[in-house]
Write a structure and sequence with these properties.
It is a single chain. With 301 residues, the protein is α+β, with helices and mostly antiparallel strands. Helix content is 23%, strand content 20%. A hairpin with a 6-residue loop joins strand 7 and strand 8. The radius of gyration is 22 Å and the shape is globular. The protein starts with 8 loop residues before the first helix and ends in a 21-residue tail after the last strand. The relative contact order is 0.18. Bound molecules: benzoic acid and fe (iii) ion (FE). Fe (iii) ion binds next to strand 7.
């Protein structure tokens, strides 16, 4: 293996994987090397540019901590997270679509009862969420575990506010009732910029992109014998619906937040309401042969 040049190096690297006894790893590395080399040839990558690329990746790693995951942001802003979601979450017609998980989920969200105010002091205009969780044929799913998290009126998640000292707000884990219903009070979400104080933010600026995500609430819904659903509901009318910095918007996930017209005792008339039905796929339906469920243990920035 001598005198390797730009024409033979790809084949040489691929041949170096001959002894790899993990077929999936071998497949991934072979494809990765092929595409990386093709990319370098395609753009005629200079040494100075590749050094800059290495500096960027080094900085991305250095930005990561227990509470900040810059590589997830990089994957999100390059569309790789959403592509992976799309590749791994084929759904039956009528089932709720999945979207990106994002970096702001925590594993220790407080448990809340039906009807609870999960805002727990987060600033914002009150919002009542009245949702239903069903199977594809409309059968309600009782006892589904629903993990909800969102930003407040200032566009901040609790984990981004150091002065809260780890206090959790605008997030909770609830269970659907016997009729598959899910009711909770929260605040109307607002659009927010993804963190821009690191290399990913600099990449966005350098490439003329904005960092904004349209207003949304995150949901992760788990029920026995059903595929776990990780998704958001986006607020209709948000100016960033067509330019989400992480490419996560699906038309079917855009919902109206409207004043409550239904006369229900004890509810102030000015409160806004979001109504939605989440439809889960059974295990064994189109999404069932996925390589693996996404982890819920992602660190928060
Ligand atoms: C989020 O929606 O929480 C999010 C997703 C991707 C990158 C940053 C934030
Ligand atoms: Fe979010």
């Amino acid at each position: 293996m001598r005198n390797i040049d730009e024409h033979t190096i790809t084949e040489a690297v691929i041949r170096s994987l001959d002894a790899c006894d993990n077929p999936r790893l071998k497949q991934i590395l072979t494809s990765l090397v092929t595409h990386l080399h093709d990319f370098a040839r395609d753009v005629q990558l200079t040494e100075a540019e590749w050094m800059e690329g290495i500096r960027f990746l080094t900085c991305t790693g250095q930005m990561c901590s227990d509470t900040r995951q810059e590589f997830i942001l990089l994957s999100d802003t390059l569309g790789l997270s959403m592509l992976t979601v799309a590749l791994n979450n084929a759904r039956s017609d009528g089932a709720t679509e999945a979207t990106v998980f994002g970096p702001f989920h925590v594993d220790d969200a407080p448990k809340a009862e039906q009807g609870a105010d999960i805002a727990a002091g987060a600033p914002g205009r009150a919002l009542q969420v009245d949702a239903l969780v069903t199977w594809l044929d409309g059968t309600p799913i009782a006892g589904a575990e629903v993990d909800v998290w969102q930003a407040d009126e200032d566009g901040l998640y609790d984990v981004q506010i150091a002065s809260l000292g780890g206090q959790r707000r605008a997030r909770a884990v609830l269970k659907t009732d016997a009729e598959g219903r899910l009711r909770f009070r929260t605040v109307i979400p607002t659009a927010y910029p993804i963190p821009t104080d690191g290399p990913v933010g600099r990449m966005l600026v350098a490439s003329g992109r904005h960092p904004w995500r349209p207003a949304h609430i995150h949901f992760m819904i788990k029920a026995p014998e059903h595929e776990t659903l990780i998704t958001h509901l986006f607020r209709e009318g948000d100016p960033y619906l067509d330019s989400d910095a992480v490419f996560g918007v699906r038309r079917s996930l855009v919902v109206k937040i409207e004043p409550d017209a239904s006369p229900r005792a004890g509810r102030p008339s000015s409160i806004a309401v979001l109504r939605h039905t989440f439809v889960l796929d059974r295990v064994g339906e189109p999404g069932a042969d996925r390589p693996g469920e996404r982890s819920s243990g992602t660190p928060s920035p």
